[in-house]
């Protein structure tokens, strides 16, 4: 059957509501079983302009599937997008998913020039996984306990399709070289520091920390950090720590946050740690990580703690593995660094 592919519109609320609440869609995606029609209408009336959502309709105009591309927000990941796809239960196996996939990939390749399209699929959704494989998506790993479904935290298969030009994807295993290499650890006396919650007044110190070339190379930070932007981030972040040296300088920063407001992912928190390059190997990262792990374990409801790290950042990977984080996936060409697209690792550990 030929399906009409068009953009999702505010007038699709009733049909989209029926699609999103289909039992099979709820089971195999991150939808909730009970949604109000009013909430779907509100979503469509205020649909984010950067998300590209398409629908598949039968020749008589009935909406039977929806899919889209959600481009990443961080500037160094704007070459990537998350793909989502839903087909109504009574139209499974009739080519709806394939029609949407062809349209979305044409959109991604020829109009958005996306280089990496990624997705997650519940581990036992074999039909969807086979569809994605047919359109060039490859397995990159498994996120353990990712999706709350019927009272069980289910694993998710992580997949991606790449479209890099020759030389763009730098799958190097060599550690990134900092612009200024710190002196060997034995030649430097250990600098005393203490941990405390970050404050908006720390913005200048944190911005200075982020300005180091090696920090930018091993994170998603940009050159020339904005002190005002950091003041706002520190104001907004509930769980952020700094390591402060005896002279009042900021030598480390760490935070945890929820990467999604979806209730079925509410058990997941993400973690990030930055250490001043002159303090590498001095225990700052370990102290920050131990403090955050203790806070999550003892006082917060999260069950899964995850992080992203460049695959060639051997020192950081060793630190995370020391504290129980396991490598779950290699995300190929995940982030832009020095003009090339580099691989990242997804690492995670259970905290409950």
Automatic annotation (TrEMBL):
SUPFAM superfamilies to which the protein is assigned, alphabetical: Acyl-CoA N-acyltransferases (Nat) (SSF55729)
What's the source species for this entry? Vogesella indigofera (Pseudomonas indigofera)
For whether the record's keyword set contains Magnesium, the answer is: no
State what protein this is by name.
Answer: GNAT family N-acetyltransferase
| Xref: InterPro entries | Acyl_CoA_acyltransferase, GNAT_dom, N-acetyltransferase
Q: What is its EC number?
A: 2.3.1.-
Q: Which PROSITE patterns match?
A: GNAT
In the UniProt record, the signal sequence range is none
Q: Provide the top EC class.
A: transferase
Its keywords, alphabetically, are:
Acyltransferase, Transferase
PANTHER family given for it? Answer: [RIBOSOMAL PROTEIN US5]-ALANINE N-ACETYLTRANSFERASE, GNAT FAMILY, PUTATIVE (AFU_ORTHOLOGUE AFUA_3G00765)-RELATED-RELATED
